[in-house]
Amino acid sequence: MRRYVLKRLLISVVLLFFVSLIIYTIMRSIPTSYVETQARMLSQLPGAKSYSEWLAQLNETYGMDRGIIPGYFQWLKSAVRGDFGDSWQYNVPVTQKFTEVIWYSFVLGAIAFILEIGIAVPLGILAARKQYSRMDYGITVVALLGISLPVFFFATVLKLVFSVWLGWFPLYGTVGRFYELLDSFGRFLDLARHYFLPVLTLTIIGIGSLMRYTRTNMLEVLNADFIRTARAKGLSEKRVINYHAFRNTLIPLVTILGGSLPGLFAGALITETLFQIQGIGYTAYRAMVSGDIPFTMFYMVFMAVLTILGTLIADILYAVVDPRVRIN
Question: Is CB count within 10 Å lower at the N or C end of the chain?
């Protein structure tokens, strides 16, 4: 297993190299950027230099006057040392801004992830056990709603009902106006009120596919020969479901769950933007809109690392869940 993990890590490094090169090429090829916007603004000031002079000066300052390949290797050399440059939008080092906002996304994603597993997996198993019953049809309808509803539409409906009409929860933000004046319990309640709707949005949208996937795999396992043998031996239905069937259902679920773990740090761009939560997704969105190449480059490479890491985690979990899996 150790040799396999090392081999996958080496392949991941090579893959990440080419992915980052493609991302850098795309970012350098976009029709506009912060440099051009800033040069245009500075050239309009009284007594300022011309637009072309400002553009040449800013390109030289940010290393945009070099070719794509030399510019990429210069960026890569700094990135290996952990230096991703300064954000043009936020005027601070990219890594500093990242550490300031990542935990908002992690808390939001972790709560939603735990709720998704706690709701989708048991309901998927229940739907499989009671196939073609009213319970099965009800769970299927909920799953299809979760799969079909767009995030922006569902989040907007929740805000309209619970924030505008009922006034139970804030429209946006992570803390209220008087957060600093509250005691510890009051601050916790204030955070909970602000996070409730975003977490509910991510949970409802996320449980649909996981619920259907669990149901489908559970039905396949329940029709297997070893399950009929276990029942013929006189084992209780509870032990047959919770021990024999569920353990085999976990094997294909590892693919989804393993790939979802890195998503805890990826941020929910649409949800964070709609609720104006200062997470990595919302921060990256503002950087992309403003043409902030350094921060956008970092975010895209960060997403690529998470994707590769998720695949590696899923492969390792296969061996943990299924002892029959052996890597030669």
Answer: C
Residue found under tokens 């989708």: 120
**Residue of 85, 72, 12 whose CA lies nearest to 312:** 12
Q: Can you tell me the mean pLDDT for 215-226?
A: 86
Q: What average pLDDT does this structure show over 313-320? A: 73
Range of lowest pLDDT (56-65, 76-85, 188-197): 56-65
Confidence category of residue 325, pLDDT binned at 50, 70, 90: low
Q: Model's pTM, two decimal places?
A: 0.81
SS3 content of the chain, % helix, strand, coil (to 5): 75, 0, 20
Domains and CATH numbers, the chain: 94-321 (1.10.3720.10)
CA distances from 131 to 128, 181, 232 (A): 5, 53, 21
Cα–Cα distance between 306 and 13 in angstroms, integer? 13
What sign results for the dihedral spanned by CA atoms 29, 304, 116, 197? negative
- Residue reference for tokens 């998503």: 263
Band of the pLDDT at 157, cuts 50, 70, 90?
A: very high
Residue 326 tokens read as 């052996």
Neighbours of 225 (CB within 10 A): 7
Helix 184-222 and helix 134-148, axial crossing angle in degrees, nearest 10: 120
AA identity, residue 249? T
Q: How far apart are the first and last CA of the chain?
A: 8
pLDDT tens for residues 15-39? 889 998 998 888 777 766 667 777 8
What does the alpha-carbon distance between residue 157 and residue 274 come to, in Å, rounded to a whole number?
A: 12
Amino acid at 170: P
Give bridge partners of residue 93 from the DSSP assignment: 86
Q: Is the pLDDT of residue 88 over 80?
A: no
